[in-house]
Amino acid sequence: MEKKHSIQVPEIVRRFTKIYQIVGLWKNGGENVSLQQKFYFTFFNVFNSTSFIGMWTIDDIDNTVFLAVLFLILAIQTYRLYFVMWKQNPILDFLHKISVNSTDNYQAFSNANYKIKYLFTLAILVLILSYTLCVGVVCLPLIKMQLLFDIAFPWDYKTNIVAFWMAYATVAGGYILSITLVMFTTTVWYMMLIFVIKYDWLANDFRSLGVARVARQEKSVKNVTDDRAKKNSLTKDLTRFEGEESSYVKNLVEAIKRLETINEQLEEFESTFSTLFLLQIVTSSICICGTTFVLAFMSHDNVFQYVFYTIEIIYCFADIFAVLYLANEIMLSSDRLSYSLFESNWITQTQYCKKYIIIVVEYLKKPKQFIVGKLFALNLETFTLIVKRSFSMFNILRNFKQ
Fold first, then answer.
1. pLDDT of 235 strictly over 50
2. Average pLDDT, stretch 382-386?
3. pLDDT tens digits along 209-220
4. CB of 181 within 8 A of CB of 318?
5. 288-316 burial, b if ≥16 CB within 10 A, otherwise e?
6. For strand 5-7 and strand 101-103, is the pairing parallel, antiparallel, or unpaired?
């Protein structure tokens, strides 16, 4: 039976997809990677190499720290770019597969829409900050004829005007491409939120099992009390109770099948993005520490440089916090399933049905949790550990600076 309320892929995600097709990161058809996509990937790796070589060749500890952070951020973005280009069809197929959801509970539907709206409000804020950063990288060098930070380049771009424009094109193009990948990052956040919604809606289905039966049972008891002499009515009531008993079990089985489908989709999502999440966890402490160090101790020539490094810190925090927070929400929402089934009208079922329910409750007691690299659990405790590790590394760099 088709349910009343449903959610599908939001319009903003469709726009992200359209933008990727317009700029050439995604193609409309075909399996092979296009020449334009290969050019983007090669160009981005050239931009990344300028920061990697620069952090070893430039004799300035402040600039070295910043280039090290920039290299780690770009390394993650390179992996995202690989995903966007070489995994386009699997990503789109999986996105549409998990985004079609429906429920009869209007309150649950409203809560889901609010969560999606709130998520994309924050995502748009991150995009605005990111593109503000990009505008600064692109526009300010045109005014001062000087890059915001030093990079390794084959020619002396500080004295040679041709070399300057080549270096500027490398940095500006690389940043534009990197910021464009933030849209893919927010799409991954949306996928994780969908699993939270799926588990929440399934919990509502568990909770509502047998609820309609209670109302009908009370009405039947009233009818029997009014006319106990009508044995045929009582027989009909008992027959209806037996039917409702089987209806409880039938709905429970259907809910369990939906749970298995959700778990399979979540395992597919985890296997697809586990390497990306592992890279984020491993590099996030260094990125947060490095950007904080640069902002605290580096001497700046203009106000925009303060804004530039502040936005870098916000992006590093948002990039890892959103993933760990949503993974933690997935764990909590799946953990609520066992108690939601306990809240159903199980007490009026037969002993055989109760034994079946106990087995299901025990099965639901183990929440779904992301473990990447067989080492790191994606939850808020890991985020706290990352922040503490960043602070420790910051103190080491500060002592070294002094």
1. no
2. 90
3. 876 544 444 444
4. no
5. bbbbbbbbeebeeeeebbeebbebbbbbb
6. antiparallel
DSSP string, 126-149: HHHHHHHHHHHHHHHHHHHSS-SS
Residue-level pLDDT at 29: 64
- Backbone dihedral region for residue 146 (phi beyond 0: left; psi -120 to 50: alpha; all else: beta): beta
- Those residues with Cβ within 8 angstroms of residue 90's Cβ, 6 or more apart along the chain or in another chain: 272
In whole angstroms, give the CA distance from residue 203 to residue 9: 22
Measured in Å, how far apart are the chain's first and last C-alpha atoms?
A: 70
User: What is the rounded CA–CA span in Å between residue 331 and residue 333?
Assistant: 6
- Whether 205 and 255 have beta carbons less than 8 Å apart is answered as yes
Lookup result for tokens 């183990």: 366
DSSP bridge partners of 212: none
Separation CA 291–CA 286 (nearest Å):
8
Nearest residue to 264 via CA among 252, 272, 275: 272
Mean pLDDT check: name the lowest of 45-59, 130-144, 258-272, 368-382.
130-144
Contacts of the segment 296-301: beta carbons below 8 A, 24+ positions apart: 296/398, 297/62, 297/398, 297/401, 298/62, 298/66, 299/62
- Count CB-CB contacts under 10 A for residue 383: 20
What pLDDT digit, counting tens, does each position of 43-63 carry?
999 989 988 888 888 777 777
Dihedral angle sign, alpha carbons of residues 171, 173, 178, 179: positive
Q: Please tell me what DSSP assigns to residue 246.
A: H
CA-CA distances (angstroms) from residue 201 to 62, 107, 112, 124, 323?
50, 10, 9, 26, 21
pLDDT tens digits for range 64-103:
777 888 888 888 889 989 888 888 888 888 888 888 788 8
Question: Is a pLDDT exceeding 90 seen at residue 328?
Answer: yes
Helix (H, G, I), strand (E, B) or coil at 102: strand
Q: Where are the alpha helices (DSSP H) in 24-155?
A: 35-57, 61-86, 88-99, 106-144
Q: Is the confidence at residue 236, as pLDDT, over 50?
A: no
Predicted structure pTM score: 0.85
Collapsing DSSP states into helix, strand and coil, what is residue 101?
Answer: strand
- The neighbouring-strand residues paired with 377 are 371
Could you tell me whether strands 376-377 and 371-372 are parallel, antiparallel, or unpaired per DSSP bridges?
Answer: antiparallel
